[in-house]
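Write out this protein's structure.
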Amino acid sequence: EKRTTRKLAAMSFSDILRPLCSKLTGKSHDHLLLDDGEPILQESSAPFITPLGDDPFTVQSEHVQGPAIGPDGKFEREALTTPAVEFTADLPPSYKEGQTLRVVGPHGPVEVLPPPGSQPGSSQRFRLAPKPEFRVVVPPGVEPGMNMTFKGSNGVHISIKVPPNVGQGEAFMVNPPALMVRVPDEVQAGDAVCFRHTVRRTEDDREVTEWCRARVPEGLQPGKYFAARLPRPAHA
């Protein structure tokens, strides 16, 4: 048993995952690894990857030079954004189950629906974040902190890092690379809005940003949030 452990420790990450990926996908070993040796698993590599379906409130954004003039002759509105964020709120003594509440969010008041069973006066945690895209079960030979690359049905490679304290056989969720966008006032579903996305920081701690555009999904009113999937950086 000790000899086996020493042998596995000496093997590379690629050596461990190559036979597993080949068995799962039915493809040759050469097509299963990137140049850096990260394993590539297909979306169909059950039971390790489970797509969770599309979210009507997650849209794709695109690079633009800045707000433009829309078909109505008005400039596109700039929207406020936030990364995924958690916040807490105390339910009032008069709270009744199923009642929506207005609590303080990242840009002011936001409506939330407490989970079933919430009691008046209790403190509840809310999360403003995109809906997860995948449920991933960590395959054998993959440890916390290791990188894994998934090849989606559209051919795009998604590289993620296994979270800490998530071991082999345990599951975690994968969110899309997105920002939460607040629908500006006087904007309707179907309208285009623009927002700034921070690409990186310079050595003197200045932000380098890019303009992006996304369309407000159906069913949302001003003050609501949707997730805008970020495009690849225009400049490496």
